[in-house]
Automatic annotation (TrEMBL):
It catalyses: Hydrolysis of oligopeptides, with broad specificity. Gly or Ala commonly occur as P1 or P1' residues, but more distant residues are also important, as is shown by the fact that Z-Gly-Pro-Gly-|-Gly-Pro-Ala is cleaved, but not Z-(Gly)(5). Residues 267-716 form the Peptidase M3A/M3B catalytic domain. It is an enzyme of class 3 (hydrolase). It comes from the Bacteria. Its cofactor is Zn(2+). This is oligopeptidase A. Residues 1-21 form the signal peptide. The keyword Hydrolase applies. Residues 77-193 form the Oligopeptidase A N-terminal domain.
Length: 725
């Protein structure tokens, strides 16, 4: 499964920021007029974006010491805007209440852009201290907003008014989203309950930040340095990258295995040194679980306890019921039912995969029992034996820059977009590796936005891959271009040579680009319409992965990094025949995390000891001993470093049902994945609409019916039962 988009604080806070952002007009003409501090007034993070493209963030001038005063000033400014709306004398209307709220908060959105860059792309021990101070500020801000009784009364009045029926569908949905933002987050509480709700949010904000920073610490400080004698089995491309990583850390002559997936995964796949594989595996999967000051076990218990208490105040039995109420799944049972349909087939496939591995180990004379640190290694041997397919051979045709060109080709054919590099220095960036592109409509040449790409791993950058916006689509005031970004952690090629990546990483690259295209193709009126429904928002990006295996991409962009020759048709055929290979492992490690997420949030936390609970729950599910959760509890940042995916990690699979079903629609069309009519329907109904309508309705407009789970089962090579048809 792919990594998720930026998660820093609680989902509630992110929702508040998202709902009030992406605009350029506020109730006050200049919120900073209220500031008495000359230091704050000169703070670059509080200045209006300047320069070309409607203004761009001053990434080259930002300083971490400016973040805290800027955040405080921006929070104060937004709260002042909201208080002004709450105290308007005129009767509440959609225009003077909902629209006014949609127009507010642009200063806070701007500051949060810089905050997000420091937290995700340029972190440091010093900034983590700043984060710890800012997290409770953000929580307090959100509580003040959601508990503004006068403001909620006005929103409720609009929601219940006769005017509501005369509003456009998007206006009605924005009103509903705004009302729920208050009603589902403590606005209906009174007295002690309301105060306690706010205090819980404040405590959770601190804990989420601490959890994320603990994981980041373990990723940064656990690096394994090897010498030449310990590299048996590793491909030359990996050894070169590991040598470069060691050199950048002052260990020239050594080889660095960093504690990130992009380094761990290939090492476990190719290293002949079983003892080292075990060491690397344990170091990676024990992040946040080392019994030291960065251990996350106690934090998990505390987070779950506070979340449970908070939803109890709102009248919900458990956290998952509250969280899923406004998702496509609607309730934990529906989410669990979907996963339980797939789980038996997944673990059954694992049994077959392990049997194949044991047979190869025995044939090679190794009297061993397959362990988790052996799975990737022997799976690669099985791949070669069954399909004559070598992952490293494929990698020689997967150059990062060529894959980027391939993504631009897809954007051209499907979205009618053209990408042109912006000259170095004309747009400020926060690191020399960041490159920027103009995005225009191919026919009209109208500017749509900018695309920032930060592709390489480095110290201080969180692991994984994600997409975000520095400015979303906006129609209020002066229309300005979208500022979108993709962020990855590829290991840079040595001496400016080609950066070669795995097939999985290539899929992830396309996946995250799908998020960027989602941002760029938005065509809605209100900022709240740009918010995402978590078990739907991954669908569009998952679908874009399908274009990687189209003939047009394969024939033109998958070329050998040394010879320039296209990937052989025979190798492509092997890739396609092996498309469901190791699907037991991939599905099981993901589903284990998704199931644990729901069990954590449907169980009374008083009965939970994280390590024991993880072990007992997985045992009860029949979890194969040869596999662990993709994200073990102590580094499960999706659900414990924020609330964006908490009780919602199942959403990747929910979205994959839509993905598999939609992919079949393209495959059945005359023009395949480049069919013009299908492309137009894709952009109109599934990309541009965002959250301006119920996602289920949007999908029906595209497909003519609901998605069917049998498409997912076919995709994974699992048997399709009659009940799934």
């Amino acid at each position: 499964m792919k990594k998720p988009i930026l998660t820093l604080t609680s989902a509630a806070i992110l929702l508040a920021l998202g709902a009030c952002s992406q605009t350029n007009t506020s109730v006050q003409s200049n919120p900073m007029n209220t500031s008495a501090s000359s230091d704050v007034a000169s703070n670059i993070l509080l200045q209006e974006y300047k320069g070309p493209y409607g203004g761009v963030p001053a990434f080259d001038k930002m300083r971490k010491e400016d973040v805290k005063p800027a955040m405080k000033a921006a929070i104060d400014a937004h709260l002042a805007e909201l208080n002004a709306i709450a105290n308007v004398d005129a009767a509440p209307t959609f225009e003077n209440t909902i629209v006014a709220m949609e127009k507010s908060g642009q200063l806070l959105d701007s500051v949060y852009t810089y905050y997000g860059i420091f937290a995700s792309n340029k972190s440091s021990p010093e900034f983590r201290e700043i984060q710890r101070e800012i997290s409770p500020m953000l929580s307090e801000y959100y509580s003040k907003m959601s508990q503004n009784e006068k403001l909620f009364a006005r929103v409720k009045a609009v929601y219940e008014s006769e005017e509501m029926q005369s509003l456009s569908p998007e206006e009605q949905r924005v009103t509903l989203l705004t009302y729920n933002q208050f009603a589902r987050n403590g606005a209906t509480l009174e007295g002690d309950a309301q105060a306690r709700y706010a205090e819980i949010n404040k405590q959770l904000a601190k804990l989420h930040t601490q959890f994320a920073n603990n994981v980041l610490h373990d990723e940064e400080f656990y690096v394994l340095y090897l010498d030449e004698s310990q590299l048996s089995g590793l491909p030359e491309s990996f050894k070169s990258a590991a040598a470069a990583a060691a050199k950048s850390r002052g260990k020239e002559g050594k080889y660095a295995i960093t504690n990130t997936r992009s380094s761990m995964d290939p090492f476990l796949t190719y290293s002949d040194e079983r003892g080292l594989r075990e060491q690397v595996w344990k170091t990676y999967y024990n992040r946040g679980n080392n019994g030291d000051e960065y251990d996350n076990n106690a934090l998990i218990k505390e987070i779950l306890t506070l979340r449970h208490e908070r939803v109890n105040l709102l009248g919900y039995d458990n956290y998952a019921k509250w969280r899923l109420e406004d998702r496509m799944a609607k309730n934990p049972k529906n989410a669990m039912d979907l996963m339980q349909k797939v789980w038996p087939a997944a673990i059954s496939r694992v049994e077959q995969e392990v049997a194949d591995m044991q047979a190869i180990a025995k044939k090679e004379g190794h009297d061993i029992t397959i362990k988790p640190w052996d799975y990737r290694y022997y799976a690669e041997k099985v791949r070669k034996a069954k399909y004559d397919l070598d992952s490293d051979e494929i990698k020689q045709y997967l150059q990062l820059d060529k894959l980027q060109d391939a993504m631009f080709y897809v954007a051209d054919r499907v979205f009618n977009y053209e990408f042109t590099p912006v000259p170095k220095g004309s747009v400020p960036v926060f690191h020399e590796d960041v490159v920027v592109y103009e995005v225009k409509d191919k026919e009209s040449k109208a500017l749509i936005g900018l695309w920032y790409l930060d592709p390489f791993a480095r110290q201080g950058k969180r692991s994984g891959a994600w997409a975000t916006t520095y400015r979303g689509y906006q129609t209020f005031g002066e229309k300005k271009p979208v500022l979108s970004s993709n962020n990855s952690n590829f290991v840079k090629g040595p001496d400016n040579g080609a950066t070669l990546i795995s097939w999985d990483d290539a899929e992830t690259f396309f996946h995250e680009f799908g998020h960027a295209l989602h941002f760029l193709s938005t065509d809605v009126q209100y900022p709240s319409s740009q918010s995402g429904v978590r078990d739907y928002t991954e669908f569009q990006s998952q679908l874009l992965e399908r274009w990687l295996l189209t003939d047009e991409v394969i024939n033109n962009y998958l070329v050998h990094h040394e010879t320039g020759k296209p990937i052989p048709a025979s190798l492509v055929e092997k890739i396609k025949r092996a498309s469901t290979f190791n699907e037991g492992f991939k599905t099981t490690e993901y589903l284990a995390s998704a199931l644990m997420d729901l069990y954590y949030h449907t169980t009374d936390p008083a009965n939970i000891d994280p390590q024991a609970f993880e072990k007992q729950t997985l045992n009860s599910l029949g979890m194969p001993e040869e596999i662990v959760m993709r994200h073990r509890s102590t580094h499960f940042g999706h659900i414990f470093s924020g609330e964006g995916y908490s009780s919602g990690y199942y959403g990747y699979m929910w979205a994959e049902v839509l993905t598999s079903d939609a992919a079949e629609a393209f495959e059945e069309s005359p023009g395949g994945y480049y069919d013009q009519d299908m492309s137009e329907k894709l952009v109109k109904h599934l990309f541009s609409i965002r959250n301006a309508m119920d996602p289920a309705d949007a999908y029906r407009l595209f497909r003519g019916r609901d998605a069917k789970v049998e498409a997912l089962m076919r995709d994974r090579g699992f048997p399709v039962s009659s009940s799934d048809k």
